[in-house]
Amino acid sequence: MWRRPDLRAILIMLFLIGTFALNFPIFISTMAVNVFHSDARAFGLLSSIMAVGSLSGALFAAGRKKPGLASLSMGAGIFGLGCTLAALAPGYWWFAAALAVSGAAALTLTNGTNSIMQLSTEPSMRGRVMALRVGVALGGMTIGAPIVGWVANHFGRVVARRGAGRASPLPWSQSTFWHAERTTARLV
Questions:
Q1: For the segment 63-77, what is each residue's pLDDT rounded down to a tens digit?
Q2: How far is CA 149 from CA 153, 159, 161, in A?
Q3: pTM listed for this prediction
C-alpha cells in the first residue's frame, strides 16, 4: 500500500489531522469552562453547533459526484482555517461559528478519505485498506488526545488550537503537491 502515493498521502493527512486536530471534546470543554466560564448548557450548545456544521459537511459530501484529492486538499485547508479562527475567537459566538466551519470541513475531509480509499483499491484489498484507514484515524486521535490536553493545560487553549490549525496545512500541502505531480505526469 505504501507504493501507492495517493493512499499514502491520504493516510498521512488523516493521521496528522486526526492526531492533533480532531480532538473536539477537549477543545470545546476547555473553551467553555476555562475561557468563557460557562456551564453545561453553553458546552452543549457549542457541541450542537459543531454537529450542525458536521451535518452540513455530510450533505455537501453526499452531493459530490466523485471526491478527489483536490476536494480533500480543500477540506484540509478549510479545516485548518476553522481551527485557527477558533483559536483566535474573541468571544463565545465567534468560537461557535468557527466550530461550525471546522465541523463541516472535518466531515467533508473524513468522508472524502473514506470514499477515495474505497473506490481506488482492488476489491480483494478493500477490507484491509479500510481497516488500516480506521486504525490510523482512531489511533491518531488516541495518541493525540493526551498530548492536546496537556498542551491546553500547560500552555493555554490558544496554543493548543493553533497547533491543531497548523496540523492541517502540512498534509494539505503534501496532497496538493502529489495532486499537481500526478496531473503533470498525465499531461506529459
A1: 888 777 778 878 888
A2: 6, 11, 11
A3: 0.79
